[in-house]
Write a structure and sequence with these properties.
The protein has 80 residues and is an all-alpha fold. The protein has one helix and no strands.
C-alpha cells in the first residue's frame, strides 16, 4: 500500500509517527498544550514594556559600540 500524498504529490505528515512509543502522547492534535503546563502564560503590560525596553537599550548599546570600533579602525590608516 502506498503512503498518502497531498494533491501536489508531497507525503502527508503524520504527527509523532517517527517517535519512540514511550515518547508519544495520547493527544496528537496540533496546538493543544500539555496538561501539566499552566493555562495562563500572559504577562502584565508593565513587565513586557520593561523587558522590551531592556532589549532595545542593549541593542542600541551594542550597535553604538560596534560603530565606534568600525570608525576607529577606518580612521587609523588614513593618516599614513
Amino acid at each position: 500500500m502506498s503512503d498518502p500524498t497531498t494533491p501536489s504529490g508531497l507525503p502527508v505528515r503524520v504527527p509523532q509517527a517517527n517517535l519512540a512509543p514511550t515518547l508519544r502522547t495520547e493527544d496528537t492534535r496540533p496546538g493543544t498544550p500539555p496538561d501539566d503546563e499552566p493555562d495562563e502564560t500572559s504577562r502584565p503590560p508593565e513587565e513586557v514594556q520593561r523587558i522590551m525596553g531592556a532589549y532595545q537599550r542593549g541593542t542600541r548599546r551594542g550597535r553604538s559600540a560596534a560603530a565606534g570600533r568600525t570608525s576607529a579602525r577606518s580612521t587609523e590608516g588614513e593618516d599614513e
